[in-house]
Amino acid sequence: MRIAVEGCMHGDLDNVYATLLHLQEVQNIKIDLLLCCGDFQAVRNEKDLESLNVPPKFRSMNSFWKYYSGEKVAPFPTIFIGGNHEASNYLWELYYGGWAAPQIYFLGFAGVIKFGNIRIGGLSGIYKSHHYNMGHYEKLPYSEQDIRSIYHVREYDVHKLLQIEEPIDIFLSHDWPVGITAGGDLKALLRQKPFFEQEIQEGTLGSKPAAELLGKLRPPYWFSAHLHCKFAALVQHEKDGHSTKFLALDKCLPGRNFLQVIEIESGPGPHELQLDEEWLAITRKYNAVLPLTIRNANYNNVHLGIEQCRQFVRNKLQTRGSKPFEFVQTAPCYKPSQPVADGVFHGFYKNPQTEALLQFLELEYLLNKMPESRKPAASPASLFSGCSIDYYGEDIPIDDTEDFKEVDPEYAQE
Q1: Which residues contact 126 (CB under 8 A, 6 or more apart)?
Q2: What is the pLDDT of residues 170-206, one digit of tens each?
Q3: Burial category of 398 from C-beta neighbours within 10 Å (exposed 0-12, middle 13-18, buried 19 and up)
Q4: What is the DSSP letter of 235?
Q5: Among 193, 214, 241, 369, which one is most buried in terms of CB atoms within 10 A?
Q6: Among 292, 353, 387, CA closest to 96
Q7: Rounded to whole angstroms, how far apart are CA atoms 54 and 87?
Q8: pTM of this structure
Q9: CA–CA separation, 134 vs 215, rounded Å?
Q10: Closest alpha carbon to 371 in 295, 286, 283, 285
């Protein structure tokens, strides 16, 4: 099986797909799957731009909307995770994963999916310590702070991934596992990105939860993006002698290393997306404690056993089959000739895919539930009285400014 891996998409689906189609033609190969490591920007319409963490002057529809509307169809099955520049309102609809457009599958805030017999896991977002042990408290319509915190990795989602016992073949994260630079050509990296040196020395370049997952899951392949450069590393796992090939890729721009094609052993096919039994069992076990306030999950309230959940899911899959639920449009499609009026909040869309998955697992739909405990007095800001949290300086690597003709002060900080 040939799998193409792309770094940060930034909504530029047309050019990425065109590049891969050209590669197929000139090299006379067939690409079976495309993986994207975040900043996908699944923007359906102008209203979605309001939930995109990009300064207004740089917000653009780009090309995802064409695939959402049906004007175009992705030429390859595509799986993506979220980064730190996303239409977070849409991705929250698909918190558990699902089709963002025909042929384009979002892996969820955390998730595992099978493609043929290849098992692919992923963690969306980036790590920031001050939000890690909170719940998913953000609610639509998002405030300026919410659109910068909603994509911060939460312990609950990592906890679920740490329950995985069966082998994972490929894992995706947006930011790099902390410490990964020790396994590659550090000198070459610092020649390209000299301002990484201090963070590397301090052990703060990258994600601690991703490093924990790397040590637990030990997949043969791990792909990341976020820092807008290509970097390869090899991680030797002492526990069992296995190794992980790590590769980070750039974003889609001319002359940048944003694509890599790998070959991986697989079964004869058909190569189709399938729901993963173990991951569905983990989801069933932990869904009741999905934290929707500033407080983290209370795992003492988890009462279902994993084997019980596993047998339940197995029986369900035998009856229904393992194909993901069908794509459904939930928001108006962008029409260049009919701009949407500014300032109108269209509310939260219940995605039928999410509803169908939860009904299949016999679980309550919680995503847009407003918990009693989330009152103004319990706002996240109250936890940090007397502290200063930089919501602006964390989001974009310093060199992003070179890609814009006009530098915005929010973009120039790190």
Answers
A1: 83, 84, 151, 152, 153, 174, 175, 207, 226, 394
A2: 999 999 999 999 999 999 999 999 999 999 999 999 9
A3: middle
A4: E
A5: 214
A6: 353
A7: 10
A8: 0.91
A9: 23
A10: 295
For the chain, how big is the Rg over CA atoms in Å?
20
Q: How far apart are CA 147 and CA 84, in angstroms?
A: 9
Q: Are 298 and 373 in contact (CB under 8 A)?
A: no
Token pair, residue 34, equals 């495309």
The conformational region for residue 229 under phi > 0 = left, psi -120 to 50 = alpha, else beta, is: beta
CB atoms within 10 A of CB 327: 19
Which residue type sits at 159? H
Answer yes or no: are the C-beta atoms of 120 and 276 closer than 8 Å: no
262-319: per-residue pLDDT in tens? 999 998 878 999 999 999 999 999 999 999 999 999 999 999 999 999 999 999 999 9
Q: Can the peptide bond before residue 56 be classed as cis, meaning omega within 30 degrees of 0?
A: no
150 and 92 Cβ atoms separated by less than 8 Å: yes
